[in-house]
Amino acid sequence: MNDVPATRSGRAPRGRAAAVGLSREQVISAAIAQIDAKGLSAFSLRELARGLGVSPAVIYWHVGGSKEDLFAAIAATITGQLAAAQDPLAPWTDRLRQVFLAYRASVHRHPNVSPLLGAQMKSNGVANLDWIEIVLAALSDGGFQGDALRNAFNALIGGLCGFVTVELAPAPSSEDGAWQDRVAARMAEVDPEAYPLTHAALPELANRIFVLRWQNGAQVPYDDSYTVLLDLLIDGLAARARSSATLETPEPLHG
Questions:
Q1: Within 10 A of 30 (CB to CB), how many other CB atoms are there?
Q2: Which residues are within 8 A (CB) of 244 and not within 5 positions of it... i.e. 6 or more apart?
Q3: What is the pLDDT of residues 70-79, one digit of tens each?
Q4: Under the phi-then-psi rule, with left for phi > 0, alpha for psi from -120 to 50, and beta for the rest, what region is 32?
Q5: Measured between alpha carbons, how far is residue 86 from residues 28, 89, 218 in Å?
Q6: Which pLDDT score, from 0 to 100, does residue 3 have?
Q7: Closest CA to 115 of 211, 40, 219
Q8: Which of 42, 48, 90, 167 has a Cα-to-Cα distance from 199 of 20 to 30 A?
Q9: Structure pTM?
Q10: d(CA 247, CA 124)
Q11: Confidence band for 131, pLDDT divided at 50, 70 and 90
Q12: Ordered DSSP codes for 182-250
């Protein structure tokens, strides 16, 4: 059921009248719902507009002049709630853990949106400033600035957001599960002489690691692996910050 009131003629209003009866939040929520149901590759602006009872121009009126603006707004909706996940009084390393754990949980609620967040430039832009600010604030409190700040930021976003994007990568949608069956069958036929280590580890690895799987992280989550990467990155940045602070501290004068 849509929230756009009908005119006296019984038809849904168009143009500015429809835009006034529809909120930006409703547009974004409906777009996310369509992606949840059909996947990002099947997203249709015309279908979104039809579902809301408006023209595509009304969608643009709310979110900007292009589909890319809508995608940026969707990304900002997913990441814009992350500030609330952190304790502002916690150490900077704990805040980063809180934020990136919340990021993964948020994307897992909408796994079909994950390629938009990590693998497409369409979601970039100033709509993500809240997300950028909280990560930069934590890193700045850790002593990072200049080139070191930029590199630390890219390591976190590339590593952790990239992990989630790969974890939730969609399987082929055109074969009705046949692709998954083929991959599973081929996994059972791995030659132990040609690949002895892989064959021996298959009970632990099959369908549970990247590149040797037929289901994505929405069906088989990679919780422990994500935690390992999170710890490695944050502990590594903390060690780097301590090392930098030690180098910058002048030695006491003796005499």
A1: 19
A2: 143, 148
A3: 888 898 888 8
A4: alpha
A5: 25, 9, 24
A6: 38
A7: 40
A8: 167
A9: 0.83
A10: 36
A11: confident
A12: HHHHHHTT--TTTSHHHHHHHHHHTTTSTTS-SS-TTTS--HHHHHHHHHHHHHHHHHHHHHHHHHHSP
Nearest to 92 by CA among 100, 252, 229: 100
Nearest by Cα to 67 from 126, 17, 1, 121:
121
Is residue 47 within 8 Å of 68, Cβ to Cβ? no
Six-digit token string for 219 = 């069906």
Residue range 102-120, pLDDT digits in tens: 999 999 999 999 888 866 6
d(CA 140, CA 149): 7
**Does residue 17 have a pLDDT over 50?**
no
Helix axes 223-248, 146-156, angle to 10 degrees: 170
Bigger pLDDT: 128 vs 83: 83
Supply 94's token pair. Answer: 């704990």
Instruction: Write out the two tokens for 112.
Output: 């079909």
Token pair in block for residue 204 = 């632990």
Which pLDDT does position 109 carry in this prediction?
94
Cα distance from N-terminal residue to C-terminal residue, the chain: 82
Decide if pLDDT at 224 tops 60.
Answer: yes
Residue 82: both structure tokens together: 């992350």
Are the beta carbons of 181 and 188 closer than 8 angstroms? no
Q: Within 13 Å, how many C-alpha atoms sit on residue 116's CB side?
A: 31
147-170 pLDDT tens trace: 999 999 999 999 999 999 999 998
